[in-house]
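[scheduler] slot 2 assigned
[scheduler] job type: sequence-to-structure, two independent chains
[scheduler] chain ordering preserved from manifest
[runner] begin chain α
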Amino acid sequence: MKYTFGLRGHDIGNNFDEMCEKAKAAGVKKLQFALAKTVNDVNFDEVGYDEKLSQEINAKLAENDLHVSVLGCYICPIHPDEEVLKSQLKRFENFLYYAKDFGADVIGTETGVAETLEKTHSEENYQFFLNNMRPIIKKAEELGVIVGIEPVYTSTIWSPQVMRRMLDDVKSDNLKVILDISNMTHAPTRHMQCDIINDSFDLFGEEIVAVHLKDFTFDEDNRKSFTVAGTGELMTELIFDRLEGLSHTPEIILDETKLELYEDSLISLSEILD
């Protein structure tokens, strides 16, 4: 497979215009586009979905040859405050329309953190999350938009097995997976990385629509930090070996990678892929 690596928009520039200018200069073609973090002079909770604004943003992206691989709308779909939760879910629903306008491959979110890890991983919380997401996925089906769930060890959907369960419970062609092995590899699961990778591809490989390559190291106190792609503890070669077995090529985003490290990351990855 031939891979094109994207970056997060807010890792490229401090605002939308700067991001477009720098991305074009650096040859970046694909984005994880966290709309509210990049078009940061707009309050999207107040504006909601604005068709004219959407068209203006889309035109600027096209002018700079930028494709939205992932539209980021990282909400907390289990927020305990009813009004805040309602606002969060409404934001995601509004962003479905932006995703459609931009031709985004997927609109992504994580799945929320409760007061404790035990409660976050509880059956009650899982069912609460599922009930909150079902209307969103139904709306995504109506619009022809793909919703991507990113499993994270500290969140509601926290393992390959729980992700598979959600896919089975929802049963929607518009629900897919954003795979970030780093986010499932925390200190308690550090020794399980190989299993996490293989389980992910075995359980839902064909439903992976995007991959975050977010390399990391742990220090002697098991504190995690991020590093240039291909230079840390992330089993990058195994991930690409498993990607080769898929019938499609997911979008790949170099997460937690600033623009100034983009070239270094491409060099490291080319050495692994050669």
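[runner] end chain α
[runner] begin chain β
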Amino acid sequence: MSTVVKVENALDLFVAETRELFAKEPDVERRWAALTPVLAKFLADPEVIAASKNWPECVPAEGRAENLIFYEDPDYGFVVNGLTKGPGRIEHDRQNTNPHMHDHAHLYTLYGVLDGNERVERYKRVDDRSRPDYAEIERTADVLVGPGEIDLVKPYEIHREVSVGKETVALIIRSAKGGGFNQGRYDPRTNRYWESLGPRQTPCEMFPR
């Protein structure tokens, strides 16, 4: 790959290290497992932690969540997203009757918490997948995570994140830009399955001047 990344800040360093890893490791499973410690260093950077205090709140609109997008790689396609949930967003989620169980379609996703606490829930399908609008799922994990902790979500894995407390800030690394294709949605109360577009992608400077 010919793209040269100039290292000036923590985002540039993360991008350079990620590109180096992706260039050396062609196996997708090993690539994304190996990216976890790179993201851990990124999450712990004081410059990133300080900058995140000034990121705008992500606001749901027209039935879709919102992600901030800080970077999209021109060669490997991975993106660096931010997610901020202030009191208004968290209250919206708590009042919304949609349980928010979902998958990310074909994407690999590393979800790292910068601030706040969340419950990460994982699910598996237990039906025979014979009906297009029907899915039975069972919860397989329910873990409380806090700053510095990272969750790897592989393609089509069913999960949700539930905020605990007043606010949550996260960095999300995806194998490609989301929002332009459908993701799976699951409602265990009715066993309904449907698909809809993922989060809106809002361009944002990680380090506002």
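[runner] end chain β
[qc] chain β: The chain has four helices and ten strands.
[scheduler] slot 2 released
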